[in-house]
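hey so u asked for the seq, here:
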Amino acid sequence: MGRAIAARLLGAGNDVTVWNRSLGRDEELVAAGARRTESPADAVSDREVVITMLTDGPALEQVMFGDRGAAGVIPPDAALIEMSTIGPTALASVAERLAPVAVLDAPVLGSVPSVEAGRLVIFVGGDRDVFERRADLLGLLGTTMYLGPSGSGAMLKLVNNAAGIAALVAVGELLALTDRAGLKQDTVLDSLAAGPLASMIERWRPRLKDEDQSSYFRLALARKDLALAFDEADRLGTRLGVSEAAAVRCDEAIEAGLTDEDFGAVVGFLRR
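ran it, structure tokens below
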């Protein structure tokens, strides 16, 4: 995702420097005009905007505050746009330690093809003035939704992911039922598309029918995001019972060896 975002910004004429935790992942970007750097600190020391897109909170912690990390050299008048899915608690910790650098939480809905087509949905939290100054840049990647104070985007990304995973597990269980009842798959999907799951069924139909086997979002990462949502629920004194049940089914799929498969693989697992 980070590589695709950098490519999109570079293609729009921006001056881009890059650093990646995995060596060699930036070759195409460098060939297209990006400047490769040797550390996070080198990548951000003269930038107006710093964008991070990382696997999880510990990865962000290392990149920002570890050896040759970015935090100590980001210009004070720059903005950090944090696009990883890390949750509002981790985001708040980063923002507090980076002050006076402005921080926007801007996690996304979508995958690499969405970036390439400029069709991400970007949930943004933080200072509204900072968002408005950077809205055109984010607009190159997709549709922005300003949601409120710092942490709002991070929270609502977790909410959306939890809702999507719970709904996907529900569809998998229901398709297992209709398979065993001997109903035709297209008939079942047509009926579901006429009800409250209409949008999801239409979007997922090629994958539910195994016509699209692309991998967009690993099951392990989906389960990580559920864990973050549970942490926030505990912090705020509530419970996500439906999502907890979905997590159990995800854990079963992971135990069956689907850790690195697309999270949609949980449907096929449940149907089997």
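The mean pLDDT is 96. The longest strand covers residues 142-148.
lmk if thats what u needed
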